[in-house]
UniProtKB/TrEMBL annotation:
<comment type="similarity">
    <text>Belongs to the GST superfamily.</text>
</comment>
<dbReference type="InterPro" id="IPR004045">
    <property type="entry name" value="Glutathione_S-Trfase_N"/>
</dbReference>
<dbReference type="Pfam" id="PF13410">
    <property type="entry name" value="GST_C_2"/>
</dbReference>
<feature type="domain" description="GST C-terminal">
    <location>
        <begin position="86"/>
        <end position="207"/>
    </location>
</feature>
<feature type="domain" description="GST N-terminal">
    <location>
        <begin position="1"/>
        <end position="81"/>
    </location>
</feature>
<keyword id="KW-0808">Transferase</keyword>
<dbReference type="InterPro" id="IPR040079">
    <property type="entry name" value="Glutathione_S-Trfase"/>
</dbReference>
<dbReference type="InterPro" id="IPR036249">
    <property type="entry name" value="Thioredoxin-like_sf"/>
</dbReference>
<dbReference type="GO" id="GO:0004364">
    <property type="term" value="F:glutathione transferase activity"/>
</dbReference>
<dbReference type="InterPro" id="IPR010987">
    <property type="entry name" value="Glutathione-S-Trfase_C-like"/>
</dbReference>
<dbReference type="Pfam" id="PF13409">
    <property type="entry name" value="GST_N_2"/>
</dbReference>
<dbReference type="InterPro" id="IPR036282">
    <property type="entry name" value="Glutathione-S-Trfase_C_sf"/>
</dbReference>
<protein>
    <submittedName>
        <fullName>Glutathione S-transferase GstB</fullName>
        <ecNumber>2.5.1.18</ecNumber>
    </submittedName>
</protein>
Amino acid sequence: MLKIYGKSTSINVRKVLWTCVELNEPFTQEDYGSGFISTLTPEFLAMNPNGMVPVIQDDDVTLWESNVICRYLAHRRGRDDLLPSTPISRARVEQWMDWQASELNNSWRYAFMSLVRGHADYQDPALLAAGVANWNRHMAILDAQLNRTGAFVTGEAFTLADVVLGLSTHRWMAAPIAHANLPAVRAYCDRLSTRAGFMTHGRNGMP
């Protein structure tokens, strides 16, 4: 059976958990990360030298990096609806997944660490204001894309891009910041709320 290493409060672990719901994939979970088992033990570092969650073990396969894990699980189940097999359709899904991991994640880091985590190193007012503005600017990119598609990130069908960006959308909406007026993003969050995986692992009170 698939084994997931990582705490459920981690947004990256929640990507994998939500994907498992979409796949009806059985799994066991072991809590690793801050407040739980350390990710810096030799045993964990042997699985992921970065010392970060999530990690999965699937028989003799060990993988880390949340978006890669989601892709692996969808492909393993032959779920072309979540991760298309045709090159251009797959590339469009992966394009938005990679944008979430690289661009969008970096945009919210300062504001989230300051206002949600309350970290002492992230309390500069000017940097906080810039961080909020940058986060809103990136969410406006998503809003524009959703206005073009009218439904989900890459079109009318739900894909893995919506798993990763759905969690990011919830984090933005839950953050105590001055939110830009992005009606397509808010409608998107409501649309995702019809999915059990999002309600369990996304819109569940955790930022």
